[in-house]
Design a protein that fits this description.
Blueprint lengths: L21 E13 L5 E13 L6 E9 L5 E6 L5 H7 L9 E8 L2 E2 L4 E6 L2 E8 L2 H18 L4 H10 L2 H7 L21 H5 L3 H16 L3 E4 L22 H9 L1 H20 E4 L29 H7 L4 E5 L5 E5 H12 L4 E6 L5 E7 L2 E4 L5 H15 L5 E5 L7 H14 L4 E5 L3 H12 L10 E7 L2 E7 L17 H21 L1
Parallel strand pairs: 10-16, 16-17
Antiparallel strand pairs: 1-2, 2-3, 3-4, 4-5, 5-6, 5-7, 7-8, 8-9, 11-12, 13-14, 14-15, 18-19
GO molecular function: ATP binding; ATP hydrolysis activity
Protein name: DUF3696 domain-containing protein
InterPro entries: ATPase_AAA_core, Bact_Antivir_Def_Nuclease, DUF3696
């Protein structure tokens, strides 16, 4: 706040000076139920280190650790001693996703097997891969298929895997087996998928040959890969992708063997996904006033009104009948449609009394604000209204629990409106959290006033101050007291007016002294 304008341009900019990586820490509710009455999920801690990639264009994981409440390391992974040949061997299963990989050293509280890797999409674990000895693969495949075929317990998933490994028509042709078709009364087009009728048509020798071929073909791929999407790790098909061998024999054995570690990874992956869905962002340079705003086909969840607020009219149109709950500037609960809620706060800011959204078909949407009883489009009111309206709409439309990031909301706003904007952040949506980057002394002063008036508490607000020191940006927290005072006033923290006033007093004193002499 109020520090020099700094924009993070390179991944290295978020790594502290003198450090090789930046560490993120999470506390996650999840994992297997604790052995207590009544059973409840554990809380566990996750740490993830990120460092600039070799080409410097992204941050990639370099270390990962999951620790339970007793301090036991359940999962640990590192970027050290990784084999690029290993990653090349299985990474094609990621279907084009730009994953980063770490080598597992601990999994499920035990030493991890050699050549076992964890793939990340961003900070979320998304793929698990382990090298399996081909002889082990053959044994697993033969044992499972022999058991299933002898007991007629073939599942659809296993039939799919057998079909991938041993094409049915080619097998029937080479062994001179007649294709088993349905009776004419129910005949449908022949399918390449192995069916129970097909398996039943095989004699003992043919079954043995089928099992041998399937096991040998599967053993050519010496990797068991779960993902991408990690259906075993929480929500199935999170990325709408298929496994390399979905539900396969070797993959199922891997999941069963490492179920504890997968459970914790799944809880963390789900928590990251849920948190990511809560984050909303609005950039600092919002769209200039327009008579007509464009429409859109699909909204990005993290950018509910667009990065510049360009979709404000569209969301007001699409959600014009949606009823929301919010508070007014006195903290009183209110209920109304999204346009009515935005209009109520617009009236408090003094920029309009009512919002009308115009559907202009292919041209887009128009927004009119009623000012002094007259409907006016945004170009007739001033830049401030077009800057403020996206903030109101994005915040009022956000789901409960959202985290809303807003850069420089005070741009082009009158000082009195900047002050009232603090009331909006404090009172309008107590069920969401805001991270606001601002240079507005008026906004911060209003927050201090509300704390002094006991309408807000220091626990409701945390003020972070950014300043340049030794060529780097240092960010520190400034504590607020119950009287609205800060425990310290760093140099450069809202002192411009004080410095100017001091110079004015000195100049006036000098003039008076000259006049007296």
């Amino acid at each position: 706040m109020n520090g020099p304008l700094v924009r993070l341009g390179e991944p290295a900019d978020v790594v502290r000076e003198g450090q090789a990586a930046v560490e993120l820490r999470f506390t996650v509710q999840g994992g297997p139920p604790a052995v207590v009455e009544p059973p409840r999920a554990l809380k566990f801690d996750v740490s993830l280190s990120l460092a600039p990639s070799d080409n410097g264009v992204a941050l990639v994981p370099t270390a990962f650790e999951v620790v339970d409440p007793e301090g036991t390391v359940l999962v640990a992974a590192t970027s050290e001693r990784m084999r690029q040949a290993d990653i090349d061997a299985f990474s094609h299963t990621a279907h084009g996703l730009d994953l980063s990989f770490l080598r597992l050293t601990v999994f499920g509280g035990r030493k991890a097997p050699n050549r076992m890797y964890l793939g990340f999409l961003g900070v979320a674990p998304t793929l698990l891969a382990r090298h399996i000895d081909p002889r082990v693969i053959v044994r697993q495949m033969e044992s499972t298929l022999d058991d299933v075929l002898s007991t007629d317990r073939m599942t659809y998933e296993l039939a799919q895997e057998v079909t991938q490994l041993v094409p049915k028509r080619k097998f029937f042709k080479e062994l001179h087996i007649e294709d088993q078709r349905e009776p004419a009364s129910v005949r449908i087009a022949p399918t390449p998928l192995w069916s129970k009728r097909d398996f039943a048509a095989l004699d003992a020798a043919q079954r043995k040959e089928l099992v041998s071929r399937a096991a040998a073909k599967r053993a050519r791929v010496e990797w068991a890969v779960i993902g991408p999407g990690l259906g075993y790790l929480g929500s199935p098909h999170r990325l709408n992708r298929r496994y390399y061998f979905e539900g396969g024999v070797v993959e199922s054995a891997l999941a069963d063997e490492h179920s504890l570690g997968l459970t914790f990874l799944g809880a963390f992956a789900s928590a990251v996904e849920d948190f990511g869905g809560q984050v909303k962002y609005l950039g600092p340079l919002r769209d200039e006033p327009r008579v007509v705003q464009g429409a859109w086909d699909e909204r990005v969840r993290a950018l509910p009104v667009g990065i510049r607020g360009e979709l404000t009219a569209e969301i007001l149109t699409r959600e014009k009948d949606r009823t929301i709950r919010f508070n007014d500037w006195d903290g009183q609960p209110r209920e109304g449609t999204l346009p009515d809620a935005a209009a109520l706060w617009c009236n408090y800011f003094g920029i309009g009394e009512r919002i009308n959204v115009l559907d202009l078909g292919k041209l887009g949407r128009g927004v009119n604000l009623r000012v002094d009883g007259v409907d006016r489009d945004l170009t007739m009111i001033g830049v401030g209204a077009s800057q403020l309206l996206p903030i109101l709409v994005a915040s009022l439309a956000a789901e409960t629990g959202s985290l809303i990031l807003i850069e420089q909301p005070e741009l082009h706003l009158h000082p009195s409106v900047q002050s009232r904007l603090a009331d909006f952040f404090l009172f309008a949506r107590p069920d969401v959290r805001f991270i606001v980057e601002t240079h507005s002394e008026y906004l911060v002063t209003r927050i201090r006033r509300r704390i002094a008036e006991e309408r807000a508490t220091p626990r409701d607000v945390e003020v972070m101050f950014a300043e340049r020191r030794g060529g780097a940006t240092e960010i520190r927290s400034l504590a607020l007291g119950n009287g609205g005072d800060f425990d310290e006033w760093p140099d450069g923290f809202f002192d411009a007016q004080e410095i100017d006033l001091r110079h004015i007093v000195r100049a006036l004193a000098s003039r008076v002294a000259k006049a007296d002499s």
